Amino acid sequence: MRAIRRFTVRPVLPDSLKPLGDLVNNLRWSWHPETQDLFAAIDPERWDACGHDPVRLLGSVPTDRLHELAADKKFLRMLELAHADLEQYLTGDRWYQSSAGDTAPRSIAYFSPEFGITAVLPQYSGGLGILAGDHLKTASDLGVPIVGVGLLYRHGYFQQSLSREAWQEERYPLLDPDGLPISVLREEDGSPAKISIGLPGDESLTARIWIAQVGRVPLLLLDSDVEENSEVVRDVTDRLYGGTTEHRLRQELLLGVGGVRALRAFSRITGAPDPEVFHTNEGHAGFLGLERIRELTEGPAGLDYPTALEVSRAGTVFTTHTPVPAGIDRFPRDLVEQYFGGENACHGVPVDRILALGSEDYTGGDPSVFNMAVMGFRLSQRANGVSLLHGEVSRGMFGGLWPEFDPEERPITSITNGVHGPTWVAREVFELAEKQGVDPSADRPEQIFEAADKVPGSEIWATKRVLRARLVEDARKRLAESWRHRGATPAELGWIDSALDPDVLTIGFARRVPSYKRLTLMLRDPERLKRILLDPDRPVQLVIAGKSHPADEGGKRLIQEIVKFSDDPEVRHRIVFLPNYDIAMAQPLYPGCDVWLNNPLRPYEACGTSGMKAALNGGLNLSILDGWWDEWYDGNNGWAIPSADGVDDPDRRDDIEAHALYDLIENEVAPRFYDEDAEGVPVRWIEMVRHTLRSLGPKVLATRMVRDYVQKLYSPSAATSRALNHDFGGARELATWKQRVLTDWPSVAIDHIESSGVGDSPEIGQTLEVTVYASLGKLRPEDVDVQVVHGRIRHEEDLVDTHAESLQLAETYEDGRHRFTGTVSLAQTGPFGYTARILPRHPMLASPAELGQVALPAHV
Ligand SMILES: *Cc1c(COP(=O)(O)O)cnc(C)c1O
Fold first, then answer.
1. Domain of 505?
2. Where is the DUF3417 domain (predicted)?
3. 126 in contact with ligand 1, CB cutoff 6 A
4. Which residue has a Cα nearest atom 8 of ligand 1?
5. 541/656 same-domain check
6. What pTM was estimated for this model as a whole?
7. For residue 350, which of 14, 365, 535, 640 sits 20 to 30 Å off, Cα-Cα?
8. Burial of 600 (C-beta count, 10 Å sphere; 0-12/13-18/19+)
9. Are residues 102 and 80 in the same domain?
10. Is 698 a member of any domain?
């Protein structure tokens, strides 16, 4: 029989166990091992059986056991300690309160389509979601006042299994919100708080708001599965990244527009401050800017569109995450018109304006699409990529938005991703550091890595073995389960007891399976791979995992290829594919690996974070110089697989890179790993582990990343935002100024350039005096920045390594003409060149490229 309705009955805790409720309902337990110990103590077997999910645990523990615990002095003492620790964590001053400064925002809203916080809240698919989860947890640790905004997917992302034929199968288990560690946001009268949004054809989309408490950070999750909605609309939040284009548009409408409305409801009900900065993690939540403009135009402020746009832009930060053009979120223009026009049009944000924001109206753009990333840049004053290299690639990729500017001047900066230490570092690694007298709970996590030099090599090695053995054990369990699912009988599974070996060099490779990540590069020469795995003296084992997007047949074929290879009895004890890569698998996987392999097609890996997690656990990276590794590989903290950039034939490129990979494993990695001293410790390997921890540890931690966001983006954004928003005078002035500059810009020109002070044979140390005669039309000299730009010369006349120096106004003539002067000192020998240019100037601009305008000398 099928149930027509289901719900989860929560237990009533005896009084003395009431604090347990607080500990279960705050997800801080997921990165706090002591709280996990407390849950385990309730019933160790049940704790394991329910996948370390405290809500399920409490829902299944017999009442008798609860009463027993209620009288258990030792347990109550543990409970009291854990509860007091949580209280202190939630209320004490942290880094933000002591060090972020006065300009730091009162509150920041962080929007993301997915959040990977813990395995028991499966609302993520991969890196983007894990990063968002790490961002919130780290913000909590640092005391940064963030509120997360996302969607609650009824099925989350799919669970992966394999068919007999090694084909990926997807299951979407129904999640019961009452069984998740979340609670519904309620109005004062106890009814659920709701928001709603108009849809085409007289329909509307209503959503309730769930709250997941992530330490100090509330995460609001919108859920369309409510009675008011039609069947179709209820399904808007059915699953992550599923369905048609229109379905995705509805999800993004709910996330962006609904997200702002949910924040307003949250502030109204709880008294939380309104966010001053809105951060959108990738373009999917970009519609949030439209909703904020609507509030300002149609609400009590009654601003005009250009002024409201300035207000909204000043307080918005946009992070782009993909250098893969196909990964950019685009909608048919008509569809956007349908959703924001007609009966849903609002006079404050006319649909033409909206279409213009997402339009690819540049060379090479497609006029029929609405591009969410392009809108993201236009609706946010500050934007970034997620590694140095990705910032550079993004400045190239979106160059059409600032066609007159050299790539390095386009207003996209970069903040390299990081990972949340307490989530991803094995407890044993923290304990090694603690034994050296380091307190990892202190505000200086980099201390842990200083301890790396003090811990004896033999202890590091022993700990790595413990971690490897744990991975082997976990992998065997998963393999057995997978084979049962694939239809094997128990008698056929004996070999699994000796699959993998806790003393063999272990290489990990786990990630989603889009083609650029090249899951099967290692299979390029199967015989050579076999020889590497089966080497009698220096064997290697590979642990592989990854999900393919359900609609990506190509990705599924790659998985099938690798699984078929690993099914071979000759190698199956040395290479395994573990289905259903998720946080639960990842946590023992990274620490258990000696080497983390990454071989993407450069430069398509925007950052990558799994290698960071491996590094924090003493794993060495073996990777193509892409994403974060391009930035921080220093020659001694792992290995760089040379990439055959510029080889156009993809097959040949794969060949070259695969062989470089085999060579590295055979000649560098394996010999070093197996080169043990008399005590059985591979001294040179350990040296590299120490160097990895020291050189990468502090950089790859998300504490560094979140501090960077606060200092480089959130605080400047809040400062501009405040300056503009004070009775909106600043915004009005800026909007009017921009309009004026854009109207009059065609009359801005460089008429003539003169220089003196350097004779026929220029020498280092001399000073060049530059004079620029400029026509500014109706603009005033203070509206512009007249610059001399100088640098080295490459390819005859290209200026590189440029520096810009502002010139001073020297004289004003009739008809809007002016003379500007300044000097440049010749500080470098070799080919030197200069030019002049005029840029718009206003104190509230975050970048001189913001208006996309520049006047250069006419070419003769
Ligand atoms: C870290 C992590 C990712 C992202 O790793 P990349 O290196 O960015 O591919 C994906 N899934 C899980 C479960 C992770 O823990």
1. 452-678
2. 13-121
3. yes
4. 608
5. yes
6. 0.96
7. 365
8. buried
9. no
10. no
